[in-house]
Amino acid sequence: MLLAGFSTFLFLLNLAMLLIAVVALFIAVTAREDAYRAADKQTKTFWLIVLGVTVAVNLLVPMLFLQIAGLVASIVFMVDVRPALQQVSGGKGRRRGGSSSDGPYGPYNGGR
Fold first, then answer.
1. Could you tell me which of 94, 9, 75, 81 has the C-alpha nearest to residue 40?
2. Is 36 exposed, middle or buried (0-12, 13-18, 19+ CB in 10 A)?
3. By three-state DSSP, how is residue 111 classified?
4. Would you put residue 42 in left (φ > 0), alpha (ψ -120 to 50) or beta?
5. Which helix (H) or strand (E) holds 85?
6. 81 within 8 A of 31, measured Cβ to Cβ
7. CA separation for the pair 96, 83 (Å, rounded)
8. What is the dihedral of CA 86, 91, 92, 98, to 10 degrees?
9. 3-class DSSP state for residue 106?
């Protein structure tokens, strides 16, 4: 019974690592190439290769230390690169309304 519970835990852990890697790969694919350069991060090709290998390792190779290395790469992408790409690309989803002339304290009216 203990072994069955442990194998279920490992399955869920592998599934979570795969899900994080797939989401990170999807975000990397949909981001613009010039946003990577503007954010001063590695190139889009670099991240596509790293995250693609991570997804492949999670699907094909059941070696925990390789999966953990891929998880670290996915977390670095999600925590460091993704926010920088969003900031450079205009911060998708960060705007809550208002006009383009709104400042941090309300609308800017040109000093009138």
1. 81
2. buried
3. coil
4. beta
5. helix 82-88
6. no
7. 17
8. 180
9. strand
Neighbours of 106 (CB within 10 A): 9
- How does pLDDT run across 42-98, given as a tens digit for each residue? 999 999 999 999 999 999 987 889 999 999 999 999 999 999 999 988 765 545 555
SS3 letters for 2-69?
HHHHHHHHHHHHHHHHHHHHHHHHHHHHHCCHHHHHHCCCCCHHHHHHHHHHHHHHHHHCCCHHHHHH
CB burial string 55-90: b at 16+ within 10 A, e below: bebbeeeeeeeebeebbebbeebbeebbeebbebee
Strands 106-107 and 102-103: antiparallel
